[in-house]
From TrEMBL:
It comes from Oldenlandia corymbosa var. corymbosa. Its EC number is 2.4.1.-. This is Glycosyltransferase. InterPro entries: Glyco_transf_N, UDP_glucos_trans, UDP_glycos_trans_CS. Residues 1-17 form the signal peptide. Belongs to the UDP-glycosyltransferase family. Residues 411-446 form a coiled coil. Residues 7-222 form the Glycosyltransferase N-terminal domain. The keyword Transferase applies. Pfam families: Glyco_transf_N (PF26168), UDPGT (PF00201). The keyword Flavoprotein does not apply. Keywords: Coiled coil, Glycosyltransferase, Signal, Transferase. GO terms for biological process: glycoside biosynthetic process. It comes from the Eukaryota.
């Protein structure tokens, strides 16, 4: 008798920061016997297809999901990468309107299980209607999930872990995001929120109990979900295959160990001119070596020298490098000359920093980033650049924190903490994933038994 491996359909949100962890989880699942079908738009699949090596080529299959035609949203915008901010709601609604196409994919494939992004709540109803078990997957921290679920379920009570909080300025930004989400939700049928009756309200989280056990437990309690960590799903970089940023690596080679910072705010956040000036002056005042990746919205033809303070590039010549658009982040963070990572605290960047043992200089901007930053501060892995009463960055504060991490004692202690945290995560990773696999196997087996008994 031929044993057929269980088929899993994965359906991430249309952001690289969500798709990459889904791909890494797919690799872990196929290593444990599953066949995985990763469903997204053609532009996103084009981004990840080269990341599937020969080892997984026969077990990870890419499935194209086509969104409805919309002159406002050409196919190149069927992703959040490079998407003009005003089109975000348009993209969310287009994905929702592609539900018939997704339903057809599910009917044709008949997967044993669907793993869908927690952002796309309507997917649970769709899988339920098709009698397919499903579980949610969050690519964010458990602390963030627990905090926002608490705010929804127990808004009159204080969050029980005071290290994790939003300031008034953070709240103002969160409200803006919340209003946008509410507007998006009004377009949906309330029945779409009904949970899938074939699963136990399970959520997989891209994290480990070694760093977030209390937040996973609290999320389970407040949301009535079974919360399970799948590890940090760090994507191991392959160094040496390509020569990206070799000049930068050579330049870092001329600097002392832990003497430099890498500065990047992710691929989907763009600093205002005022923020860029404060960061620039902060780096200048710190007297620390740096590599800074600057980005501008798609379609805006801005030269870095025009966006930066007058004379800045000349004044930092020899100890500062400006890179426009993209840099080999993992390769740079892995370099021994890097002693700190100035970042927005997107969860993927946080995980990467921990992997390479680089202390974080946290400058969260919006969404989950302030909560991720404070989790890292709680763990002794980061220092946050605190904003003033108006919510603005200040150059003197930036300079002080950069020096604290690179020059003073904090950086040394944080690096020791990083090594400890990384080791504990690695030791528990297989155990956590094996627990998840046992559960997924059971859900898949139950579905096949149900089909057999009804045929």
């Amino acid at each position: 008798m031929v044993i057929t491996s269980f088929k899993v359909l994965m359906f991430p949100w249309l952001a690289y920061g969500h798709i990459s962890p889904n791909l890494e989880l797919a690799k872990k699942l196929t290593d444990r016997g599953f066949s995985v079908y990763l469903c997204s738009t053609p532009v996103n699949l084009g981004f990840i297809k080269n990341k599937i090596t020969a080892k997984h080529a026969d077990s990870i299959h890419l499935v194209e999901l086509h969104l409805p035609e919309n002159p406002e949203l050409p196919p190149r915008y069927h992703t959040t990468n490079g998407l003009p901010p005003h089109l975000m709601s348009t993209l969310k609604n287009a994905l929702y309107k592609a539900k018939p196409n997704l339903s057809k994919i599910m009917e044709d494939l008949n997967p044993d299980l669907v793993i869908y992004d927690v952002v796309q709540t309507w997917t649970g109803k769709l899988t339920s209607d098709l009698n397919i078990p499903a579980v949610k997957f969050s690519t964010s921290s458990a602390a963030m999930m627990a905090y926002f679920c608490h705010m929804l379920m127990k808004r009159d009570e204080k969050f029980p872990y005071p290290a994790i909080y939003l300031s008034e300025i953070d709240y103002a930004r969160a409200r803006t995001v919340g209003e946008s989400a509410k507007a998006d939700a009004e377009e949906l049928d309330p029945a779409e929120e009904r949970p899938n009756r074939f699963c136990d309200k399970i959520v997989l989280v891209k994290s480990s109990k070694e760093i977030e056990e209390k937040y996973m437990d609290y999320l389970s309690e407040v949301a009535n979900w079974k919360t399970m960590g799948v590890g940090t799903l760090f994507q191991s970089p392959v160094f040496g295959d390509e020569d990206e940023n070799n000049e930068l690596i050579q330049w870092l080679g001329t600097k002392n160990e832990c003497s430099s910072v890498f500065v990047s705010f992710g691929s989907e956040y763009f600093l205002t001119k005022e923020e860029m000036e404060e960061v620039a002056f902060g780096l200048e005042l710190s007297n620390v070596n740096f590599i800074w990746v600057v980005r501008f919205p798609a379609g805006e033809k801005i030269r870095p020298e025009d966006a930066l303070p007058e004379g800045f590039l000349e004044r930092v010549k020899g100890r500062g490098k400006i890179v426009e658009g993209w840099a080999a982040q993992a390769k740079i963070l892995a370099h021994p000359s890097i002693g700190g990572f100035v970042c927005h605290c997107g969860w993927n960047s946080v995980v990467e920093s921990v992997e390479f043992g680089v202390p974080i200089i946290a400058m969260p901007m919006h969404l989950d980033q302030p909560l991720n930053a404070r989790l890292m501060v709680e763990l002794g892995l980061a220092v946050e650049v605190m904003r003033n009463g108006e919510g603005k960055l200040e150059r003197e504060v930036i300079a002080e924190v950069v020096k604290d991490v690179v020059v003073e004692k904090f950086g040394e202690n944080a690096r020791k903490n990083m090594v400890d945290v990384r080791q504990r995560i690695k030791q528990r990773e297989d155990e956590e994933l094996d627990e998840v696999v046992q559960l997924l196997n059971r859900l898949c087996e139950e579905k096949r038994q149900n089909e057999k008994s009804s045929s």
